[in-house]
Design goal:
Blueprint (H helix, E strand, L loop, with lengths): L14 H13 L5 E2 L11 H12 L12 H15 L8 E4 L3 H11 L5 E5 L4 H9 L3 E5 L1 E4 L2 E4 L1 H7 L4 E6 L12 H13 L3 E5 L25 E6 L12 E4 L2 H13 L6 H13 L3 H21 L14 E2 L4 H7 L4 H12 L1 E2 L1 E2 L15 E4 L5 H16 L1
Parallel strand pairs: 1-12, 3-4, 3-7, 7-8, 8-9
Antiparallel strand pairs: 2-10, 5-6, 9-10, 11-14, 13-14
Helix pairs in contact: 2-9, 3-9, 4-5, 4-8, 10-13
């Protein structure tokens, strides 16, 4: 019996393979310093847990509307819109079981067979996976390293657009590089999207994981962009709810209503009692996210300081996400490595420090010359960050 030939086009998140390697090393009795997976080992705020239990005991445990309960949709419409300087209503929000469903449902709604979709590389690997699986043509765009961080290579992006290009996937406050767009960069992207009549998926997973006082920027706030942009929203990061699986798609009604039809065909609806709890928290008290952000900032500073003392490592302090993406080209040369994955696995076995490499975030492009690795500091305690950085430094500089 045959299987669907499209399965050959379906990718994965290879970061989970790194996690399995780290577990296997730990199962042999070795201590592992887990910098590999962007999970969060912090407790979900107590008001969310308490409200969830209350609504669970109040029998909010059946089916609800596939779009999500009106209370949460309205709360998100106001909260998301007010933080981005635009207005959304009930019709602009559909609740999803996590952030990922927005990617495939958005593409399934606006992409036709053979359409070209621009996506960031390095970037979240599910973009490329879903574009290809659904019959689109994945077209990567890249970044340049500067003395302040990473910037989109706008010239290459502009030159990648053809008459078949219909979609731009944009992840400001970016995974894995923690890149933050300047206003000028965002305006340039908006101008390209408008000029070429592109749909835009704005992955806002880390919109509120930011460590500066400057207000976050969203492409939907630029005139003309709200009408062509769908926001990927998730509670996973800001409230440490990675395992709860709840998020939302927010955008033009003519797209959102079709994405709700996919909900009916796929999961029917998102967990009922959790939606009620989050509607209450969004309206009344989001202070728990501030405590999470404070702890993540402390971890970022410790991890950055540790990496910054290692000879040959080059990186800039990012303002967002919970990732560091150091350039280790000189480190590898100094230690005689040409294979980035061998460097990664040798580091694990020599020090217990487990991290992902650039290769886990899209296939390297032909003109890439530098080597990068990614550290996620969201699932490791401050003391272990310090200890792990010390071991990595000793091994690299030995």
């Amino acid at each position: 019996m045959k299987l669907n030939a499209k399965l050959d086009r379906l990718g994965t998140e290879t970061a989970f393979a790194v996690s399995a390697q780290a577990k296997a090393w730990a199962d042999k009795g070795n201590k592992v310093y887990p910098f590999h997976l962007g999970d969060i080992n912090l407790q979900t705020p107590s008001n969310i847990r308490e409200a969830t239990n209350r609504y669970m005991n109040d029998a909010k445990n059946g089916y609800c509307a596939p779009e999500g309960i009106p209370e949460l949709r309205l709360a998100l419409a106001h909260d998301v819109g007010s933080k981005r300087g635009v207005e959304y209503g009930l019709e602009n929000v559909v609740i999803q079981p996590g952030g990922k469903p927005t990617i495939w449902k958005f593409l399934a709604t606006v992409m036709n067979e053979g359409d070209e979709a621009l996506y960031p590389n390095p970037g979240y690997p599910i973009y490329e996976s879903q574009i290809g699986y659904q019959g689109g043509i994945p077209v990567p765009y890249s970044y340049n390293e500067t003395d302040t961080g990473f910037e989109i290579d706008m010239e290459k992006l502009r030159n990648s657009i053809t008459d078949k290009t219909t979609i731009l996937i944009y992840n400001n406050y970016q995974n894995p590089m923690s890149a933050s767009s300047s206003l000028e960069e965002m305006q340039s992207l908006a101008a390209l999207a408008t000029e070429h009549d592109l749909w835009v998926l704005s992955d806002d997973a880390y919109f509120e994981i930011r460590y500066t006082d400057r207000s976050p920027r969203s492409i939907v706030s630029i005139p003309g962009m709200k009408e062509r942009t769908v926001i990927l929203y998730t509670f996973s990061k800001k409230f440490a709810m990675t395992g709860w699986r709840v998020g939302a798609s927010i955008g033009p009604e003519k797209v959102i209503r079709h994405m709700a039809r996919f909900n009916i065909n796929d999961e029917s609806c998102t967990n009922h009692f959790i939606q009620h709890a989050l509607a209450e928290v969004i309206r009344e008290d989001q202070s728990g996210s501030k405590r999470i952000l404070s702890e993540l900032k402390s971890r970022r500073d410790i991890c950055f300081s540790g990496l910054n003392t290692i000879n040959g490592v080059s990186l800039q302090l990012p303002e967002s996400t919970f990732y560091l993406f150091p350039n280790v080209t000189d480190v590898m040369a100094n230690k005689g490595y040409t294979d980035l994955d061998l460097f990664r696995t040798d580091a694990l076995e020599a020090t217990g420090v487990s991290f992902c490499s650039r290769h886990h975030f899209g296939s390297p492009l032909a003109d890439e010359e530098n080597h990068y690795i990614r550290f996620a500091y969201s699932s490791i305690e401050q003391e272990d960050i310090q200890e792990g950085m010390g071991k990595l430094k000793s091994w690299i500089e030995d």
